[in-house]
Amino acid sequence: MERHARGAALFLLACFASAARAATAIPDGLLPNGNFEEAPARSQLDGTRVTGRYAIPRWEISGFVEYIGSGQKQGDMLLPVPEGAYAVRLGKEASIQQRIALTRGAHYSVTFSAARTCAQAEQLNVTVAPESDILPIQTVYTSSGWDSYSWAFKARRSAVTLIVHNPGVADDAACGPLLDAFAIKTLQPPQRTKSNMLKNGDFEEGPYTFLDTAWGVLVPPLDEDDYSPLSPWMVLSSTKSVKYLDAAHHAVPRGARAVELVSGVESALVQDVVTVPGRPYRLEFSAGDAGDGCAGSLAVQAYAARGSVKVAYQSQGKGGHTRGALEFTAIANRTRVVFVSTAYNVKADGTLCGPVVDDVSLVCTREPAARRLLL
Ligand SMILES: *[C@@H]1O[C@H](CO)[C@@H](O)[C@H](O)[C@H]1NC(C)=O
Ligand SMILES: *[C@@H]1O[C@H](CO)[C@@H](O)[C@H](O)[C@H]1NC(C)=O
Fold it and tell me: pLDDT digits over 296-324, tens only?
């Protein structure tokens, strides 16, 4: 009894400590001139090429950077701009950067929109020192050509520099991604609740989503020791993402957010949890569709310890879900819970889609035998 009370007190303390730590400096939303609507002076443009290092208000550039107006042609393609009327394009080895004031020690996620122009394997190198990751942008998940990407970091200082660099996979200088709409959000590290051993089981805490974009936000694969925008969920893959969805634009099984597994078996959504070897556990989750036209036979496969379950869901593409469960016995003091979509699915417009996962819970189903004997 006393032990329980002390446990609860410690738990509450932990909650308050983290709430206090996460006070914000920069408000959530677009970065200053994050949508590039404040234009360079005409004298600092040579055609579309930006000539001055500080020509784009609030940003610093290096290398071949173009200032692109909506409706301008990129080769044969006519690309609309997702936010306002302007975007930038990074040529080979070019970069843009911005200084941001924030709260030291807090975690942030950055969301931005990108469209690739020619190469199949275009990449972006996103850095807030000392963290840096290469985000794959070769797979396009929208018919507009634009996807939103998220990336997270821990602020080691109260002023950091966000750098986005095109490492230049394509040799053609006229190739390179278009970028627009940079936003930031302070992430509140999710807490464990009494009824769920998994944190952020409902995916309510995640990257910034734009109110006016209907295509969700990709959460790219990262190294396991990097902070995930969906923490403590991680996306493990060599190049494939999952998609973070909001209820404003999608059917979401519970709450305001969910995850769509858009990359078949090529990417896994995982979370590690502390377990006791030999004890039985029950994993439950919703599997459904986002109401975004992803029709057909969808299936979510879940794994934990030596157990696995495949939950099939027949989708009309109009929203809906079913519940799946997996009983397993832990074989180690840490268990990795894994979700994958068993197949690639394709919408009528040719873009990739997949089943939605949401409302995931893990509970220990039985007190250990020794403890029961004592009671
Ligand atoms: C990514 O950019 C950072 C900072 O500009 C740099 O230190 C790092 O080497 C780059 N990584 C790659 C693979 O280009
Ligand atoms: C978990 O197991 C590993 C390897 O068996 C061991 O090194 C580690 O100390 C254990 N951790 C806990 C918390 O028991």
Answer: 999 999 999 999 999 999 999 999 999 99
Q: Specify whether the CB–CB gap between 151 and 133 falls below 8 A.
A: yes
Average pLDDT across the chain, whole number: 89
Q: Which of 127, 151, 164 to mutate to test the pocket of ligand 1 (most atoms within 8 A of CB)?
A: 127
**What is the Cα–Cα distance from 271 to 327, expressed in whole angstroms?**
17
Judge whether 251 and 291 are in contact, CB under 8 Å. yes
Q: Are residues 163 and 311 in the same domain?
A: no
Q: Which domain range does residue 127 map to?
A: 24-187
- Do 183 and 196 lie in one domain? The reply is no
Answer yes or no: are the C-beta atoms of 299 and 311 closer than 8 Å: yes
232 prior amide bond cis, ω within 30: yes
Q: Confirm or reject: Cβ of 165 under 6 Å from ligand 1.
A: yes
Rounded Cα–Cα distance for residues 191 and 171 (Å): 46
Is residue 143 domain-shared with residue 210, that is, in the same domain?
Answer: no
